[in-house]
Structure formats: structure tokens, C-alpha cells
């Protein structure tokens, strides 16, 4: 029987690339995201790969909506074998001007929602004696950059949650791992380019080369498919059975120095 993967923020960017990889490998997909055409995107991916799917427009700021998403997924597919906490937002500002509401939203979407959704899916994984939790963190879960206080704090927190779940899941066949991408050219990055241009008084190309890719040893954006294939390895390759509690950089060498 086909396994089921639930991926938050999977109607855009990295999450969408992950959904396509799992769909190509015949998983049932639970899509989630705030894109206005999210349902259409989900329908097209599922049709292309001839796989079953559910689209949930749950806003991760809403605890009730998270519960409904988890319950609907389990009701429709009987189980969720793989949970990928991927959704995220960014805001760039020096700490003294950082808006309180942006801090709250970033911490909530990246960290609190991952906790709440894991809590909702955990019992079915425990019952099945199998589960794969994969948190799409960031190199910013391991190192910091200026002007990203909320994001860096949330991502470091998610590394901590990842490790704790690895400890708690070990007796139940549940592994928990984080993937830490470097810069990937998606909406979240495109949206911060104008802010960085203003903040540093730089051109778009200079922001990309001198701010974003400055830390990468490989001076290119990471492609979303590399993150998707890494997630699939952690979820489905027998060799990953003993990999738990790690934070795996896929970052062009950014965190190596
Ligand atoms: P993206 O903006 O293309 O995708 C983000 C997804 O999250 C979208 O589908 C969006 O609708 C969803 N989302 C945001 N707020 C939500 C909410 N309240 N409720 C439900 N869904 C919500 O960006 P991406 O680059 O694909 O980001 C995916 C993850 O990868 C994020 O956690 C991000 O922090 C992480 N990441 C990205 C990069 C990068 O350079 N792009 C690097 C490291 C880590």
C-alpha cells in the first residue's frame, strides 16, 4: 500500500519540489500552503504522477486548522508515514526595529506549528512503529546572519526539537532529522532581495553575490531538487534507519568554515 507524506508549505519552492519527488515515488501526498492557486498546483502534480492527494489550506498560525489537517490526512489515508515540516517565512531587519508581530509569526510558523503538527501525527506513527519526521531547517539553524533574529532563533529551536524527537521516537521506529539548506532561489529569497538592497544600498546582483552567496563555497544557489532527494533518502532509503537526530547541511559548503 502506498505510504503517505504530509508536507507543509508544499505549493511553492522547496516543499513543492519535495512533493514532486515523493509523488514520482508513488506516495500519497498531503499538500499544504497559502498560495491562492494551491489546490490547482496540488491537482496538477498528483495528476502528472497519478498519485492520490489531499490539499489542506491550513494556516499554520491556526492551531485548530493544524488539527483538522492532521485528522483529515489520517482519515483519508489511514496513516501518515512521513511528516515534513517545511513551511517558513522570513523578515529582515536590525533587531532594534524588528516588529514584534513579525517575531511572533516567524517563531509560530517555523517552530510552534512544527511542534503542534508533530504532536497531532505522533500517535499514528507510534502505533505503526514507523515514522519519518524531516524538518526543513536552514544553515541558519546552525549559524547566524545579522538582521534575521527571529528566523535564526526559530531555526535553531527547530534543530533542538528535531533532536528531542529523535530521542523520544527511537523506541517506536520513528526517526527525526533536519535538513539545513543554503540559499535556494525561491519566493522566500526573492522577497528579501529588495529589503537587502535597501539595507545595504547594493544592486540586486551584489546582494546575491556579496550577501547571499558570500558564505557558500560553491557560489551557486542550491537547487530545490537536491533538498527533495535528500528528504527522500532520509524518508525511504533503508540505509537511513540509523540516521536520527542529525542536522544535515545541503548548503554548498557554507557551514564548513
Ligand atoms: P517559499 O516561500 O517558496 O515557500 C514557503 C511555503 O510556506 C509556501 O508554500 C507558503 O505558502 C508556506 N507558508 C508560509 N506561511 C504559512 C502559513 N502560515 N501557513 C501555511 N503555509 C505557510 O520558500 P522556500 O524556500 O520553499 O521555503 C521552504 C522552507 O525552506 C522554509 O522553511 C525556509 O525557511 C527553508 N529554507 C529556505 C531556504 C532558501 O534559500 N530558499 C534556505 C534554507 C531554508
Briefly summarize what is shown.
49% of the residues lie in helices and 14% in strands. The chain is an alpha/beta fold and 257 residues long.
Taking all residues together, what is the mean pLDDT?
97
Q: Count the helices. How many?
A: 8
Shape: globular
Main sheet summary: 7 strands, parallel
CATH H level, superfamily name: NAD(P)-binding Rossmann-like Domain
Write structural notes for this entry.
It is a single chain. This protein has one domain: NAD(P)-binding Rossmann-like Domain (Rossmann fold), CATH 3.40.50.720. 49% of the residues lie in helices and 14% in strands. The protein contains eight helices and seven strands; from the N terminus they run E-H-E-H-E-H-E-H-E-H-E-H-H-H-E. It has a seven-stranded parallel sheet with strand order 3-2-1-4-5-6-7, with helices on both faces. Helix 3 runs parallel beside helix 4 (100-128). The longest helix has 29 residues, at 100-128. The model has no long low-confidence stretch (mean pLDDT 97). The structure holds nicotinamide-adenine-dinucleotide (NAD). Residues 8-9, 11-15, 32-35, 59-61, 86-89, 109, 136, 138, 181, 183-184, 186-189 line the site of nicotinamide-adenine-dinucleotide (NAD).
Amino acid at each position: 500500500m502506498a505510504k503517505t507524506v504530509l508536507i507543509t508549505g508544499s505549493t511553492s519552492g522547496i516543499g513543492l519540489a519535495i512533493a514532486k519527488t515523493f509523488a514520482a515515488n508513488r506516495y500519497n501526498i498531503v499538500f499544504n500552503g497559502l498560495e491562492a492557486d494551491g489546490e490547482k498546483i496540488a491537482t496538477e502534480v498528483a495528476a502528472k504522477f497519478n498519485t492520490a492527494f489531499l490539499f489542506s489550506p491550513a494556516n499554520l498560525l491556526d492551531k485548530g486548522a493544524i488539527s483538522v489537517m492532521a485528522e483529515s490526512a489520517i482519515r483519508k489515508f489511514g496513516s501518515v508515514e512521513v511528516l515534513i515540516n517545511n513551511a517558513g517565512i522570513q523578515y529582515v531587519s536590525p533587531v532594534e526595529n524588528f516588529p514584534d508581530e513579525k517575531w511572533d509569526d516567524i517563531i509560530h510558523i517555523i517552530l510552534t506549528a512544527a511542534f503542534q503538527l508533530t504532536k497531532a501525527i505522533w500517535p499514528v506513527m507510534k502505533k505503526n512503529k514507523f515514522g519519518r519526521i524531516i524538518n526543513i531547517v536552514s544553515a541558519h539553524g546552525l549559524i547566524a546572519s545579522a538582521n534575521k533574529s527571529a528566523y535564526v532563533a526559530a531555526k535553531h529551536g527547530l534543530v533542538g526539537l528535531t533532536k528531542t524527537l529523535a530521542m523520544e521516537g527511537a523506541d517506536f521506529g520513528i526517526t527525526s532529522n533536519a535538513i539545513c539548506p543554503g540559499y535556494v532561489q525561491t519566493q522566500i529569497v526573492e522577497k528579501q532581495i529588495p529589503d537587502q538592497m535597501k539595507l545595504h544600498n547594493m544592486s540586486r546582483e551584489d546582494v546575491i553575490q556579496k550577501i547571499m552567496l558570500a558564505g557558500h563555497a560553491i557560489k551557486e544557489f542550491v537547487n530545490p531538487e537536491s533538498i527533495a532527494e535528500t528528504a527522500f533518502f532520509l524518508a525511504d532509503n533503508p540505509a537511513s534507519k540509523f540516521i536520527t537526530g542529525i542536522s544535515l547541511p545541503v548548503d554548498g559548503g557554507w557551514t564548513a568554515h
